[in-house]
Amino acid sequence: ELKVEQNPLFLSMQEGKNYTIYCNYSTTSDRLYWYRQDPGKSLESLFVLLSNGAVKQEGRLMASLDTKARLSTLHITAAVHDLSATYFCAVDSSLGNEKLTFGTGTRLTIIP
Amino acid sequence: GAVVSQHPSWVICKSGTSVKIECRSLDFQATTMFWYRQFPKQSLMLMATSNEGSKATYEQGVEKDKFLINHASLTLSTLTVTSAHPEDSSFYICSARSFNEQFFGPGTRLTVL
User: Fold this and answer.
1) SS3 call for A36
2) Which of A62, B52, B68, B99 is the most exposed place for a label (fewest CB within 10 A)?
3) Distance from CA of A7 to the nearest CA of B (A)
């Protein structure tokens, strides 16, 4: 059974600081996704990582994937208040059934 | 990106009634759609995989007779919560896959009184 863990679960950080959220998964997979969720809203797709060593950046967020370590990171650079949200990673089971297993989520609060 | 819609956005119903939620892929066809449930402050849990033209595949622990799924066309899947009870109150989200990405609907918040 595929398990996906995120760390930390809660993160409070000051504006301007950098931080990294970690996503570990238990079985082989070549596809990992990062999503953002605002309170009361559905998921917004941030990144799709499809191969080992993949790195993608959008604004102050950068995501990477190491399939050998079964680890993905979401790095936040010079955080701003607008980035406050819950961030989820999700892993494709790679069994051909397109099912995603979600991590526990990281609730990020950026303090002015 | 591709767009997935859900209807209704929120629904309040009495205990014992049935509620139908629709999920539509607006600009693409989806042979497979997924239904998730999310309780407050928790992650998304996959309930079932909806397959166009065939029976849905349910995750372990999800009652197929309580959560009826119908995928009658390539752009529409429905989830019916039968005989809803307060413990069924949750945020229900559907998704559909286009190329290498899953696109999520806006969600339906169900409150059962």
Assistant:
1) strand
2) B99
3) 13
Q: Please return the burial class of B80, using the count of CB atoms within 10 Å of its CB with bins 0-12, 13-18 and 19+.
A: middle
Handedness of CA A46, A93, B93, B87 (dihedral sign): negative
Residue of A nearest to B107 (CA): A42
Chain segment A18-72, per-residue pLDDT in tens: 999 999 999 888 789 999 999 999 999 999 998 888 999 999 999 999 999 999 9
Strands A32-37, A43-49: parallel, antiparallel or unpaired by DSSP?
antiparallel
B→A interface, C-beta within 8 Å: 1, 32, 34, 41-46, 49, 57, 93, 95, 97, 100-107, 109
Residues of chain B with pLDDT under 50: none
Contact B69, B48 (CB under 8 A): yes
CB of B98 closer than 8 Å to CB of B92: no
For residue range B25-45, what is the model confidence (pLDDT) as tens digits?
999 999 899 999 999 999 999
Instruction: Specify whether the CB–CB gap between B92 and B78 falls below 8 A.
Output: no
| Tokens read off for A15 | 């504006």
